[in-house]
Design goal:
By secondary structure, the chain is an all-alpha fold. About 85% of the residues lie in helices and about 0% in strands. Helix 2 (about 35-60) crosses helix 9 (about 175-215). It is globular.
Length: about 280
């Protein structure tokens, strides 16, 4: 009987949890075409991580996990971008760029005062999947269940907001409320992916599997299912190959995703030529 190391078991569990959430929320990101917003939120997370890491070190607060800072920073960034989108849409690009750069800058400044800042930066930017422990799995599971719950309950509301906000207003849907909620769920899914692929590679994980799924269907439900399946395949292959070759798991997963996209891109034209 083959014995699988405990750290590898935790890595696969984290990959499965993140696949479910990134497959679903990534589909919304692709349909709504908000990958730039996703990138801004993911990079702004470093501000929260840096602040909480600094406070934990400075005041010796052991329970102050940097991931709590990541959640707070991601939600604040999402709500700010959502507010600008709903009220000052013409300035949305500038705000996205500002949050993207400012969040990274704040995080780097705070981490500069922490002795182990180099290791922290590396783990946050590129992921640290093989250091996943039981507590991480509990946190990832809780966030994942929260995302799945709201995604199922408010599926129809999110659907109409993604495809036609004007129609949603006419149907008296609370567009602002559900748009904020959608961005909040995307933010939580981004936090989930930090451990897997890191800040730099999050956009690839959230957008490319859903884009590949979109090659084969225009129906959002089917797209979500296919996206989850693709994420499971990419994560499993990436973890296995990175373990065998001693490669960074996050980067390995991103390379596999890219290879699949390039290979399947010509199939898209062939698939739709028969419709």
């Amino acid at each position: 009987m083959i014995s699988i190391p405990i750290f590898l078991q935790f890595a696969f569990l984290a990959g499965i949890i993140s696949s479910l959430t990134s497959g679903i929320m990534g589909s919304y990101v692709v349909i709504k075409r908000i990958s730039s917003i996703t990138g801004s939120i993911s990079h702004s997370i470093l501000a929260g991580i840096g602040l909480f890491d600094f406070l934990s070190y400075k005041y010796n607060i052991a329970w102050l996990d940097p991931m709590y800072g990541a959640v707070i920073a991601s939600l604040l960034s999402a709500f700010l971008i959502g507010w600008v989108h709903l009220n000052y849409k013409q300035k949305e690009d500038a705000v996205i760029a500002m949050i993207w750069s400012c969040g990274m800058a704040i995080g780097i400044i705070f981490l500069a005062f922490v002795p182990h800042r180099q290791a922290t930066c590396t783990h946050v930017l590129f992921g640290d999947l093989f250091t996943t422990n039981a507590i991480d799995i509990y946190i990832l599971s809780a966030l994942g269940l929260l995302i799945l719950f709201f995604s199922i309950i408010y599926y129809r509301k999110f659907l109409i907001i993604c495809f036609d906000e004007e129609t949603a207003y006419l149907q008296k849907v609370y567009v602002k409320t559900f748009y904020y909620l959608l961005l909040a769920l995307i933010s939580l899914s981004i936090v989930l992916l930090i451990k897997i692929v890191g800040i730099i590679l999050i956009i690839a994980m959230l957008t490319i599997p859903a884009t590949i799924a979109n090659f084969f269907t225009y129906r959002l439900q089917v797209m979500m299912v296919l996206s989850v399946i693709f994420c499971l395949i990419f994560n499993t292959l990436g973890i296995y190959i990175s373990y065998l070759l001693s490669w960074p798991p996050g980067a390995t997963i991103a390379i596999i995703i890219t290879i699949f996209y390039i290979v399947l891109l010509p199939i898209k034209k062939l698939f739709y030529s028969y419709e």
